[in-house]
Specification:
205 residues; globular; cell membrane; single chain; transmembrane; transmembrane helix; LysE family translocator
Length: 205
């Protein structure tokens, strides 16, 4: 995998992690309702689930590509449309992340880890996102090194982003600033996801 290709993967993984959703809500809940440590434990448990999805998706797409290139292109097109839909939803959002910044109830570290893992494993939208995302990178992952990068990049990015969220939210003076930037995060995510969708469609067609 070339460095440029990896940078593209890194950028999309960052935006995917930053997009507001149930994963963010769960980390916020355990951070504000528990502690910084609760939020960090929840974050890395969630990232393990992300890594598992990344590995399963990569291996599955690799098999499809070898056995049926036409089916692979169909998956890529459907994935591109899904990415475009996510992007449009993000552009229309009025600050989805801001709605997630609410406190929860305090729980144990075990519960925080369990919830973090569960919210990633049992969220079908994550699988759809990886199917859409990896369809353009699987060709660049012909070696073990490339495959490892494709799996570890979303795992590490996800863990680091939600760790950052946990650290930021543990300082009440920073929370209002994050809320003010929520709308811009949504807008940026929308533009990049739509651009990625167009790129996939042009490549396949």
């Amino acid at each position: 995998m070339s460095f440029t290709t990896w940078l593209g993967l890194l950028a999309i993984c960052c935006l995917g992690a930053m997009s507001p959703g149930p994963s963010l809500a769960m980390v916020v809940r355990h951070t504000l309702g528990g502690s910084r440590l609760h939020g960090i434990v929840c974050a890395w448990a969630h990232s393990i689930g992300i890594g598992a999805y990344a590995l399963v998706t990569l291996l599955g797409l690799a098999v499809v590509l070898k056995t049926s290139p036409l089916l692979f292109n169909g998956i890529a097109l459907i994935g591109a449309l899904y990415l475009a839909w996510i992007g449009i939803q993000a552009l229309r959002s009025k600050g989805g992340m801001q709605q997630k910044l609410q406190a929860g109830t305090k729980t144990s570290l075990w519960v925080a880890a369990r919830d973090g893992l569960a919210i990633s494993i049992f969220n079908p939208k994550i699988l759809l996102f990886f199917l859409a995302l990896f369809s353009q990178f699987v060709l660049a992952a012909e070696t073990i090194t490339g495959q490892t990068l494709i799996v570890l990049t979303p795992l590490i990015v996800d863990g680091l982003w939600y760790t950052f969220i946990a650290i930021v939210l543990s300082h009440s003076s920073i929370l209002p600033k994050l809320r003010k930037k929520a709308l811009w995060i949504d807008r940026l995510s929308g533009v990049v996801l739509i651009a990625l969708a167009l790129r996939v469609i042009i490549t396949v067609l």
